[in-house]
Write a structure and sequence with these properties.
- The structure is a single chain.
- Helices cover about 40% and strands about 10% of the residues.
- By secondary structure, it is α/β, with parallel strands linked by helices.
- It has a single domain, classed as Arginase, Chain A, CATH 3.40.800.20.
- It has an 8-stranded parallel beta sheet with strand order 2-1-5-10-9-6-7-8, with helices on both faces.
- Bound molecules: zinc ion.
């Protein structure tokens, strides 16, 4: 099965400046690792240079006033300490930088290219690692996200498809996929399902179990808020119970997925406890369900992840899964050199293998033997709510 992989050197222009967690080095080193594993030589992979997004496409989701502001700031030259709180721009999460409009439009263009690819070809999958900017709102930037490429791509697929087409959006980033949820909150043609760290403990604060959509969209916004410290076994158990039953109840024509990997135990800005070994199982689970429940159509997008070694390893494993190929555990030596050169080992241990051992779990368990029981009890409660209430609601309205 063919996989379209979107890439251009231009991706490095989405850069909030030094010290910002969303450094373009994440994308560069991921690409380098995929290349070092020879994944781009795979006969099923098609490397695609992205097209630009048109303003018209972006305005299907975003407000003109906000887009005009981004365009105005595009030519400021260098970085600026100006702030426009109304638009979510300024020092902090979304600093203003030269070329920011072009950079945000390029990410949208890449996700639209990935969408075009699965629209045009039968039984295809595509992957844009720069996309997945799920926090952006129609009228403002939020959480490192200037434009919501996810919502733009989803709307584009719907605009190009017959009436009645349904899209499911799955978000496994550590943060709630709030922008996408609120944009489609009152619609039933897009079902959103987000697994994330409980919003009471992390940005953006939303994503409670009770946020289920409104009006026509009632029952089509779903959330799985997990306790800080949730480990592989608990996450995978709840994921394997909820994902297939939601997909089976909704039967989407397309699955669009945000693959944030900031759920890792070593992530510097979050508190879930997954390992890259856990990520690989989650990826396998997602792809297993695509032919069964979503018409064999899949669009994968990147997302968060602020430990660079994790981002590169986990997304490389995802691409290997998409291609149906196995990759060896020890990291290729040539990539190791690139990692040292581009990133340095200043404040973190270099990764040496793809699939890490979860020492984090052992440490936590030693400190608190009841901890796993607590995590499991919380997960069981969520599963119960899905089984008894949320899934029957989707089924009854189909
Ligand atoms: Zn995130």
């Amino acid at each position: 099965m063919e996989v379209g992989f979107i890439h251009t050197e231009n991706f490095s222009q989405y850069n909030f400046g030094s010290g910002h967690p969303l450094t373009p080095k994440r994308i560069e080193l991921t690409y380098d690792l995929m290349k070092a594993y020879n994944l781009f030589d795979n006969s099923n992979l098609k490397l695609i240079t992205p097209r630009n997004a048109t303003e018209e496409e972006v305005l299907r989701i975003h407000k003109t006033s906000y887009l005009t502001k981004l365009k105005e700031l595009n030519n400021i030259g260098g970085n600026s300490y100006q702030a426009f709180p109304k638009f979510g721009l300024g020092p902090g999460d979304n600093p203003i930088f030269s070329g920011m409009y072009d950079a945000a439009m390029a990410v949208c263009g890449a996700s639209l290219t990935a969408a075009d690819y699965i629209l045009e070809e039968k039984n295809t999958r595509s992957f844009n690692i720069t996309g997945g900017l799920h926090h952006a709102m129609p009228e403002m930037a939020s959480g490192f996200c200037l434009l919501n490429d996810v919502a733009v791509a989803i709307q584009h697929i719907l605009d190009k498809s017959p009436k009645g087409t349904k899209i499911m959006y799955l978000d496994v980033d550590c943060h709630h996929g709030d922008g996408v949820q609120w944009i489609f909150y009152d619609r039933s043609d897009v079902l959103t399902l987000s697994f994330h760290q409980d919003g009471r403990t992390i940005f953006p604060g939303s994503g409670a179990l009770e946020e289920n959509g409104k009006g026509e969209g009632e029952g089509y916004s779903l959330n799985v808020p997990l306790l800080p410290g949730t480990i592989d076994s608990v996450y995978i158990n709840i994921f394997e119970k909820i994902l297939p039953s939601v997909m089976d109840a909704y039967r989407p024509d397309y699955l669009v997925c945000q693959l944030g990997v900031d759920t890792h135990f070593s992530d510097p800005i979050t508190n879930l406890g997954l390992s890259t070994t856990g990520h690989e199982i989650i990826f396998k689970d997602i792809l297993k369900n695509v032919p069964k429940y979503s018409n064999n159509k899949f669009l994968g997008l990147g997302g968060g992840g602020y430990n660079i070694g994790v981002v590169a390893r986990s997304w490389t494993m995802f691409l290997a899964e998409l291609l149906g190929t196995k990759i060896s555990d020890p990291l290729p030596e040539k990539w190791f050199e690139l990692f040292k050169e581009k990133w340095g080992f200043s404040d973190e241990e270099p990764p040496v293998v793809l699939r890490d051992q979860n020492w984090y779990i052992e440490e936590k368990q030693l400190k608190n033997p009841y901890w796993e029981n607590e995590l499991e009890a919380h997960a069981d409660e969520i599963v119960k709510k899905y089984e008894e209430e949320l899934i029957p609601l989707i089924k009854n309205s189909q």
